[in-house]
Amino acid sequence: MTFLDMLRDATAQNQSLLCVGLDPEPSRFPVNWRDNPAKIYDFCAAIVDATADLVCAFKPQIAYFAAHRAEDQLERLMQHIRCNAPRVPVILDAKRGDIGSTAEQYAKEAFERYGADAVTLSPFMGFDSISPYLQYHGKGAFLLCRTSNPGGDDLQNQRLAGIEGEPRVYEHIARLAQGPWNRNGQLGLVVGATYPAEIERVRALAPTLPLLIPGVGAQGGDALATVRAGLTAQGTIVVNSSRAILYASSGADFATMARAEALRTRAVLEAARPG
Question: Is 108 considered catalytic here?
């Protein structure tokens, strides 16, 4: 199955638009595991097991593993998801953005070493930074488009005077991703939940692309506005929540409480579906 097939199936089977971000911070682990990077796999695997039937995707953030020399634990975690939640796609949040042979190695890392179904990318260096990932047919790539951080305005919201209509940078990225860059139907876009009006604008420019939407939960994004702005009959959304779910409890019941928060968030998202 392709990434898009897996995403559609998981969304339907689990009745969910929710993606759980796996951003393990040992300093926030339950008391018995606190500040112990060797427990990263155990913590994340417990979260996966507690929420696998509630999500449309998982999104491990590679920096949280690499910073603790825990890439081997990430490999184990990816295998765990494959064995215990085989119908749920995994988006490796890496935000790679290089070109040429370096990009080829990053693509190999994401899709061969870790076995991800999709990856996040920065399109700042243009199509050259994306094409190596598209050689992996059936895999997905989400391009940073309109991110949830305030500093995103520094570049993403600037107008391009040399292009007809003077689109903003994020609008131009959306058009390219919907059009000439999407040669094999593998692309999606990252749009922050803190800007629902701009989610709506991106959806208008990219009506069929899946949108990965971080920022719901601890970052303050409005789940109701997010769904109404981004979800259409043609285009699905993947709404990510990380910290609010991962750290719903600092006790031995962390996985149980993570499930409860995931249930609550899924219900909010489902209630916001149009019609």
Answer: no
Range of the domain at 63: 3-170+186-271
Task: Look over the chain and give the mean of its residue pLDDT values, rounded to a whole number.
Answer: 95
First-to-final CA distance of the chain: 29
The model carries a pTM of 0.96
Q: How many CB atoms neighbour CB 238 within 10 A? A: 27
262 has a pLDDT exceeding 80: yes
Q: What is the pLDDT of residue 148?
A: 84
Number of structural domains found in the chain: 1
Is residue 178 a part of any domain in this protein?
Answer: no
Residues whose CB falls within 8 Å of the CB of residue 60, separated by 6 or more in sequence, listed in order = 21, 22, 23, 44, 74, 77, 78, 90, 92, 93
Q: Of the residues 39, 59, 95, 139, which is catalytic?
A: 95
Q: How many CA atoms lie within 13 A of 37 on its CB side?
A: 11
d(CA 163, CA 194): 27
Residue 176 lies in a domain: no
Whether pLDDT at 256 is above 60:
yes
CATH of residue 103: 3.20.20.70
Q: Is 180 within a domain? A: no
Residues paired with residue 191 on neighbouring β-strands, in sequence order: 146
pLDDT in tens, 151-169: 999 999 999 998 999 999 9
Report how far residue 64's alpha carbon sits from residue 10's, in angstroms, rounded to the nearest whole number. 25
270 has pLDDT over 70: yes
186 touches 130 (CB < 8 A): no
